[in-house]
Amino acid sequence: MAAVDCILKLGGSALTQKNQLETLKADSLQRAAAIVSKLRGAGERRCIVVHGAGSFGHFQAKENDVASGAPAGSAASDNLRRGLCLTRLSVTKLNHLVTEQLVSCGVPAVGISPFGSWKTACKNVSQAGIEAVKDVLDAGYVPVLHGDCALDLEQHCCILSGDTIIEVLAMKFFPRRVVFLTDVSGIYSCPPDTPGAQLVDSIVIGPDENMEPPVLTSVLPHDTTGGVSLKLQTAVKIVSQSRGAIPVLICKLDSEAAERACLTGEMNGGEGTKISFFER
Ligand code: ATP
Ligand code: IP8
């Protein structure tokens, strides 16, 4: 399979006001689309964009407990099915907005919803819709996936985070780098709104997937996929399973560092967090 240059996660917290139902940050979306356009202009033609849900999806999923699905062995209730439909309507609305902005910046972007081709068993990915992503890339388009609902073999359905999707894509496509663009400058020693929180420039993953330094995290009450801690878990897996061959960078979408991180994989101290593999 031909290599991919960059897998980019546009965080739901960066693209939307995560606390206000279906509220887009239009300026941030424009900035994100301009970055993808520059990546293509710089010759990085094989890139994959994945975006989170932010305030498009998490509220509906939380309200209807879509992440828990139905108890094993019992049928899904009408309420659960309706909740799944409402969640999907919301995330696909954001996917349309993101794809539309990319196309208007000259990027040949095509939205791909994971629902249907990605499946889970007890919330773990059991089937990934890789072929569709590969075909779209090979045909010269930029696939734009998103966190979504998934049908689950054990519990009817669950929520599949964009972060989990990225972990699977990274192992299949082996990109030169994975970049997470979010609403804060990177990973902090503790939640960024906590007194004394400090941006961590570098996190090193040891041979048994331990993280140095360790960090403390928090999550919004309506976030159905675990917030920044899932992002860290994804980053740890990508770096350790590739034994450092795929670097992971996390920085703020609304920053000068974001463009450079995506284009070159370089970031200066104080600009974000680079996650790399322990070397003896
Ligand atoms: P989505 O899942 O909707 O795509 P996202 O990927 O943009 O969202 P979140 O999961 O919302 O990102 O994580 C980012 C948020 O995590 C930030 O707004 C920040 O306040 C919070 N956070 C909590 N603890 C930390 C930490 N130690 N370092 C960095 N951010 C943290
Ligand atoms: O925001 C969540 O995806 P994420 C998807 O990438 C839904 O974690 C449907 C809430």
Q: What is the total number of structural domains?
A: 1
Helix content: 25-40%
Strand content: 15-25%
Major sheet: order of its strands? 3-6-2-1-9-12-13-10-11
CATH second-level architecture: 3-Layer(aba) Sandwich
Question: Which secondary-structure class do the elements indicate?
Answer: alpha/beta
What's the CATH H-level homologous superfamily? Acetylglutamate kinase-like
Q: What small ligands are held by the chains?
A: adenosine-5'-triphosphate, Isopentenyl phosphate
Which value, in Å, is the CA radius of gyration?
A: 18 Å
Low-confidence stretches: none
Return the string of H and E elements.
EHHEHHEEEHEEEHEEEHEHE
Could you tell me the CATH topology label.
Answer: Carbamate kinase
**Sheet of most strands:** 9 strands, mixed
Shape: globular
Top CATH class: Alpha Beta
Average pLDDT score: 95
The end-to-end distance, rounded to whole angstroms, is 31 Å
User: What is the total tally of β strands?
Assistant: 13
Number of helices: 8
Give a structural overview.
35% of the residues lie in helices and 21% in strands. By secondary structure, the protein is of the alpha/beta class. The chain has a single domain (6-277), classed as Acetylglutamate kinase-like (Carbamate kinase, 3-Layer(aba) Sandwich). The strands form two sheets. Strands 3-6-2-1-9-12-13-10-11 form a nine-stranded mixed beta sheet, sandwiched between helices. Helix 2 crosses helix 4 (78-104), helix 2 runs parallel beside helix 8 and helix 6 packs parallel to helix 7. The radius of gyration is 18 Å and the shape is globular. The two termini are 31 Å apart. The mean pLDDT is 95. Adenosine-5'-triphosphate binds at residues 11-14, 18, 52-54, 162, 182-184, 187-188, 190-192, 215-218, 225, 227-228, 231.
